[in-house]
Amino acid sequence: MSNSALPFFLMFILIILVAGVIFYFSPLKNRFGIKKSTSLINLRKSIGLSIEHGKGLHVSLGKSDLLNIHGAASLIGLETLNQIIDQSILSDNHPVTTAGSGDLALLAQTQHENVLNDKSSPTTDFHSDAYLSGATNYSYIAGAIPPSSDDTLSTQIFVGNIGPEIGLLIDSNNKKKHFTLAATDSLEGQSVGYVCSEEALIGEELFSIPAQMSDKKIFKVSLLIQDLLRWIVIAIIIIVLILKLGGIL
Amino acid sequence: MDRNCYHHHCSYLEIRWDSVKKVILIFISSLSGILLILGLFFPETLFGEIRFYLLDWAIIVGAIALGIAIINLFSVHWNKVFADDKRDYASPFFIVGFLTVILIGILLGPNDQFFVNLTSTTIISVEASLLAVLALTLSLASFRFFRKKQNLLAIVFGISTVLFLLSFSGILALGEKFPLVRTLNSALNALPIAGSTGILIGISLGAILTSLRILFGFDRPYGRK
Lengths: 249, 225
Hints:
The complex is a heterodimer. By secondary structure, chain A is of the alpha/beta class. Chain A has nine helices and six strands, in the order ααβαβαβαβαβαβαα. The longest helix of chain A is centred in the C-terminal third of the chain and has 29 residues. The relative contact order of chain A is 0.14. The longest helix of chain B has 40 residues. Chain B starts with a helix and ends in a 10-residue tail after the last helix. Chains A and B meet through α1, α3, α4, α5 and α6 of A and α1, α2, α4 and α6 of B.
């Protein structure tokens, strides 16, 4: 980041923090509701049906590690995994998680281990429930194809940073008629996901998953701030446009 | 009775220890997050140096995590080979390939030309074949798309796909000498830039908020609540 942009970024963070404090501690947040996404409603239904029918779930967390710009999408993937594990805690079939980066795979294993501890399950084999399917883009996809074409599955969720190669995974799901939700921060991945999968999240919808799947106040506040910032950005764009048309800028 | 009390005492201690662990974890993650942000805004101060060291540590930890995850991947495939149910027939190929590459790499060294050629040829040929399959899959998916989704968004998507395929093929550039076609062409080319910029702004806002939530310790997707 260039040094001239730093004060603007600092101002941006301060706006976020001030808005966060106001929304979190005031009843203002109760005036706004969160519009439920039909894709996520269908996902919850599908998870419920999977548990009822004793079928499995496959969650794929994408290929990005936490140290680069796509790390936020991977973190959303982990949060989603947390919620899904919470929902499927009563299922006989453990969800299977695949990831394309080492740190993400180990963090996903921690989530699975915690569930086994919560359930006081006698089995301790959480290592094969969450694993690295491949260390490069295409090896990750090649490694994730076998668990995603498993006959005992009924629901598949792709959340994180996955490029257009997501098409290969979704195609193997479509053949088995599994429910598929594609949520990625990659533009190419989103368009392929939209064409190939049953349900796809477009744009920043990916970042609304935690708020949609959990009742935690912090997620709702975060989503409200995201909306507020979006309106601020829209207002700035329109003002700059008017100033440019007026010949002032 | 004594034994029961002893047990209660134990579980109480266990719960307390869990809470202490959580507090320590939140403290360390929030402190590192705040130090990283301060290092970003004040790079010439001590915070800048701390940020540099913290990022270095994170890269080292990430590399170690990758090593552990690869060993785990090997063990997953090893178990699948000998499993009674859900036996995966791709696993033996993985194990043979993995061991071959590891052994050659150890014996010849990672910079040996034969080793470099072997690994890059394998990776390139496999990735090229996957890309070819992807191209076919996407062509088929685009045909199936209109059968599956019949709404306004799908129609707009379909029309814009055809329009931009034509535009990027250069067919519209033939009429560049006519001012109307030139204006139409530049307006058409601006549309995908505007659309993708809009989506990227939304994604960036979401990413910033997610990162801040985690950096300040408000959310811990890496640990269970």
